Task: structure prediction
Amino acid sequence: MTIQALREATREGAFCEAAIPAQVESLQRKETSSAKPFYELLLRDATGSLVLRAWSDKPAFAACEQLTAGDFVEVKGNFSQGSFGLDAPGWMVSSLDAEGISLLVEGSPEEQKTRETTYQGIVEAIATIEDPRLRELCNSFLNHYGPRFCRAAAARSNHHARRGGLLDHTARMLQAALALQAVYPHLHRDLLITATLFHDSGKLWETCPPAQGFGITPDLRGELMGHLSIGIELVNALWRELPKEEWKELQPASEEVRLHLLHLIAAHHGQLEYGSPVLPKTPEAIALHLIDNLDARLEMFQEAYTKTPGATSGFFEWTRPLGVAPVAPLQKVSL
Result:
């Protein structure tokens, strides 16, 4: 069972007997106020994270003494939601074998198929770009960084903060952008597709787990530059490699196309206080910002419904990134 599925199964006070395969992101030995030692174990899989505590009088304590960050494990127990979140009395932990590690990192055949379908949808959208400069730029990005793009997270927390989260976030934004362009046909379709692909491309260095893992470790480029700056640098680097001489007669000029794309990347946070060095100044720039924010916030609501109590009452705990205490949505009519 995944961590997310376990959270959903234990809503409304339910108990769930489960085995959770995960990777150890961190392991800290601590003490209570009465000097009683315990381990705090942070686990992560492709769907989320889970913190468990191993007390000194429990079997898991000795097992934790043999673990280090990066290890792949399986945790078994009868889980429920308590005052410390998900927990199970007397939970046990053991190492995963090679087959279990491969299944955890790559996902089940069904999950792999879903990921391939999501990626293929992006590839197919790129193929419809009419401007050869933007189409080749997108293809160059995927050719160079496709595997890294598929495993990157969209954030460290708040939304799509998981392995593969950036792929899901980008794909949903792309679907929304194409639907919006059909309503507002004056929006530059080619530019919007390209900017959607590249808007968070800097996350490949800011929030990307390793090839065999889930934890996001600090990267020097990501820490020093941030994903907006990296995205701009990446577009410029790939743009220099394009055979622009073949398109020197195209209008608008290549330099104008490049600058508009860079503007969308730079302005997609929408406000100066949120990190954008410039405010959105074109229809495509404001559209990209709003689509990005919409997908992120809808994901935050789903996360809040899954991670916090309230399924029975319909009122959920205050959620910091949303700035509100979410209320359960209205159910669809049942005829």
